[in-house]
C-alpha cells in the first residue's frame, strides 16, 4: 500500500467529494419535489394522469440508470451539438457539462423510485384525519401541506434514509460521463499513479462515511418525531 | 416515416443480432450472479441467525460494506482484486499470469454484491417462519441440514420472494455496470453500435426499450412464481 500520492492529490479529492455532495443535494431535492408529484399522480382519479405516472415509474425503474445517463448525455447531447442556436447561447457551457446531465438523470430516477414509495405512504395515511381537515374547510393544498405530506414523511423516514443512501451510491455513475466526482477522481489518480487499489479504497471509505452521515441525520430526525411509542 | 425506416434498418437489420446476443449475455450474467448471490445470501443469513460471534461480526461487516459502497466502485475494486488474486495464486504455482474470463469475473463480482442484499432478505424471511415448525422438526430428530433443506428453505420462500424478485430486477440493471470494465454485454454492444453509427439517441433509446422488455417480462414471470410458491400460504 502506497499513500504518498495523497498529499499531492488531496485538494482534488476534496473538490471531488464536494461534487458528489452537490450531486446528492441537487438531485435529492429536485427529485423529491418530482416524487411528490409522481406520488400524487399515481393516486390520481384522472385516468390519464394515473396512467402517465405509472408508465413513468415503470420506465424509470425498468431501465438501468447508466442507460438513462447515456440517453441524456450522449443521446440528447449529440442532438444539442447539431443545433447552432444552442451552441451560441449562454446555456451552452452548462449543456456541455456532464454534471447537469447526471443531475437531471438522477432527479428523474429519484422521482420514479421515491414516487412509488411516496404513493404507498400517501395511501397509508389514516383517512379520518384527512376527512376531518376537509370537513373543517381546509383548502386541498393546505390539507396536503399540513396533514397529508407530514404524516406520510414521518411514516416513511426509515425508507427515505435508505433511498438517500441509494442516491449517494448512484451519484458514482457520474464518473462514467467524465464528471470529476469522488469516483471520477479516484480513476484519474489511478491512471496517473498506476496504483489500482489505494485510490479506490480511500474513496470507498469516503462513501462509507457519507452513508453513515446520512443514516445518522435520519436517525436524528426520527428521534424528533412527534409520535407516541405504544410499545 | 423515413426516419422510422432508417431506425429499423440500423437497429434491427444491422445491429439486431448483436444486440440480441448482448441481451442474452446480460441475462446469463444476471442468472449466474443471482445463483451466487442466493448461495451467499443463505450462508450469510444462517451465520447471522445461528453462527458463532466472530462470524456474525464478519457477516455484519460484509453486508454493511456492500450496501454502503457504490456498486460501480465495488465492481471496479473486486474486478481488479479478483484478477490480481488469481494471478497471485497462479504465480505461486509457477504459472504464467492468465487473462481473466470477463464473464466469470462479472458473475462473481455481481454475485458478491447481491449476496449482501440477499442475506438480509433471507434473514428476514427465515425469522418470519413460525418457530414451532422448526422446533417440531427438531423434536422429530431431523438433522440440521435436513431441517434447512425441507423446512427452512421452502418455508421462507413465500416471505422472501418479493424481495428476491426486486433483487433480480436490480441485478438486470446492475449488470449494465459491467460494461464499464469492458465485458461485452448488452450495454457495451450498444455503445459500440452507437459509436460506429453515430446514432447515439436512437441506440440508447432502443436499448432502454430492450431492458424495459426484460424487466417487464421478469415481473410477469415472478408474479407466476409467487403465485405458485405462495399457494399454501394462509389467505388474508
Automatic annotation (TrEMBL), chain A:
The keyword rRNA-binding does not apply. Pfam families: BPD_transp_1 (PF00528). The chain crosses the membrane at residues 12-38, 59-79, 99-118, 200-218. Its main location: membrane. It is found in: Cell inner membrane; Cell membrane. InterPro entries: AA_ABC_transptr_permease_3TM (IPR010065), ArtM/GltK/GlnP/TcyL/YhdX-like (IPR043429), MetI-like (IPR000515), MetI-like_sf (IPR035906). Residues 17-218 form the ABC transmembrane type-1 domain. CDD domains: TM_PBP2. Keywords: Amino-acid transport, Cell membrane, Membrane, Transmembrane, Transmembrane helix, Transport. GO terms for molecular function: transmembrane transporter activity. It is a multi-pass membrane protein. One of its GO terms (biological process) is amino acid transport. One of its GO terms (cellular component) is ATP-binding cassette (ABC) transporter complex. Gene3D superfamilies: MetI-like (1.10.3720.10). Part of the binding-protein-dependent transport system for glutamine; probably responsible for the translocation of the substrate across the membrane. PANTHER family: GLUTAMINE TRANSPORT SYSTEM PERMEASE PROTEIN GLNP, MEMBRANE COMPONENT OF AMINO ACID ABC TRANSPORTER. Belongs to the binding-protein-dependent transport system permease family. HisMQ subfamily. This is ABC transporter permease subunit.
Automatic annotation (TrEMBL), chain B:
InterPro entries: AA_ABC_transptr_permease_3TM, ABC_transp_permease_HisMQ, MetI-like, MetI-like_sf. Residues 23-222 form the ABC transmembrane type-1 domain. It is a multi-pass membrane protein. Keywords: Cell inner membrane, Cell membrane, Membrane, Transmembrane, Transmembrane helix, Transport. It holds the Pfam family BPD_transp_1. Signal peptide: none annotated. It is found in: Cell inner membrane; Cell membrane. The chain crosses the membrane at residues 20-47, 59-80, 100-119, 157-181, 201-222. Belongs to the binding-protein-dependent transport system permease family. HisMQ subfamily. This is ABC transporter permease subunit. GO terms for cellular component: ATP-binding cassette (ABC) transporter complex. The keyword Transmembrane applies. Its main location: membrane. GO terms for molecular function: transmembrane transporter activity.
Amino acid at each position: 500500500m502506497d499513500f504518498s500520492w495523497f498529499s499531492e492529490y488531496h485538494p482534488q479529492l476534496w473538490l471531488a467529494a464536494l461534487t458528489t455532495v452537490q450531486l446528492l443535494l441537487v438531485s435529492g431535492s429536485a427529485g423529491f419535489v418530482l416524487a411528490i408529484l409522481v406520488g400524487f399522480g399515481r393516486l390520481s382519479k384522472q385516468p390519464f394522469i394515473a396512467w402517465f405516472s405509472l408508465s413513468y415509474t415503470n420506465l424509470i425503474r425498468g431501465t438501468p440508470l447508466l442507460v438513462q445517463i447515456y440517453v441524456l448525455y450522449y443521446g440528447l447531447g449529440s442532438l444539442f451539438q447539431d443545433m447552432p442556436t444552442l451552441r451560441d447561447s449562454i446555456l451552452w457551457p452548462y449543456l456541455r457539462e456532464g454534471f447537469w446531465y447526471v443531475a437531471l438523470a438522477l432527479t428523474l430516477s429519484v422521482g420514479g423510485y421515491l414516487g412509488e414509495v411516496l404513493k404507498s405512504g400517501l395511501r397509508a395515511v389514516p383517512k379520518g384525519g384527512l376527512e376531518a381537515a376537509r370537513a373543517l374547510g381546509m383548502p386541498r393544498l393546505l390539507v396536503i401541506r399540513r396533514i397529508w405530506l407530514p404524516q406520510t414523511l414521518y411514516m416513511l423516514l426509515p425508507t427515505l434514509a435508505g433511498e438517500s443512501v441509494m442516491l449517494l451510491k448512484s451519484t458514482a455513475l457520474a464518473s462514467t460521463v467524465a464528471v470529476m466526482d469522488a469516483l471520477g477522481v479516484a480513476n484519474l489518480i489511478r491512471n496517473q499513479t498506476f496504483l489500482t487499489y489505494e485510490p479506490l479504497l480511500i474513496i470507498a471509505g469516503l462513501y462509507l462515511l457519507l452513508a453513515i452521515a446520512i443514516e445518522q441525520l435520519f436517525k436524528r430526525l426520527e428521534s424528533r418525531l412527534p409520535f407516541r411509542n405504544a410499545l | 416515416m423515413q426516419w422510422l425506416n432508417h431506425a429499423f434498418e440500423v437497429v434491427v437489420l444491422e445491429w439486431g443480432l448483436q444486440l440480441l446476443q448482448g441481451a442474452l449475455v446480460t441475462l446469463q450474467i444476471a442468472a449466474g450472479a443471482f445463483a451466487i448471490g442466493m448461495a451467499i445470501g443463505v450462508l450469510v443469513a444462517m451465520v447471522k441467525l445461528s453462527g458463532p460471534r466472530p462470524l456474525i461480526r464478519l457477516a455484519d461487516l460484509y453486508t454493511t460494506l456492500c450496501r454502503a459502497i457504490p456498486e460501480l466502485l465495488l465492481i471496479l475494486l473486486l474486478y481488479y482484486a479478483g484478477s490480481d488474486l488469481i494471478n497471485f495464486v497462479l504465480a505461486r504455482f509457477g504459472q504464467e499470469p492468465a487473462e481473466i474470463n470477463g464473464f466469470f469475473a462479472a458473475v462473481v463480482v455481481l454475485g458478491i454484491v447481491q449476496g449482501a442484499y440477499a442475506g438480509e432478505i433471507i434473514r428476514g424471511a427465515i425469522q418470519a417462519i413460525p418457530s414451532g415448525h422448526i422446533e417440531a422438526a427438531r423434536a422429530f430428530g431431523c438433522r440440521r441440514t435436513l431441517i434447512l433443506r425441507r423446512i427452512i428453505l421452502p418455508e421462507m420462500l413465500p416471505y422472501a420472494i418479493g424481495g428476491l424478485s426486486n433483487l433480480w430486477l436490480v441485478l438486470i440493471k446492475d449488470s449494465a455496470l459491467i460494461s464499464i470494465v469492458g465485458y461485452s454485454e448488452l450495454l457495451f454492444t450498444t455503445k459500440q453500435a452507437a459509436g460506429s453509427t453515430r446514432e447515439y439517441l436512437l441506440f440508447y433509446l432502443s436499448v432502454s426499450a430492450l431492458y424495459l422488455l426484460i424487466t417487464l417480462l421478469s415481473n410477469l414471470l415472478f408474479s407466476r412464481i409467487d403465485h405458485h410458491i405462495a399457494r399454501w400460504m394462509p389467505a388474508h
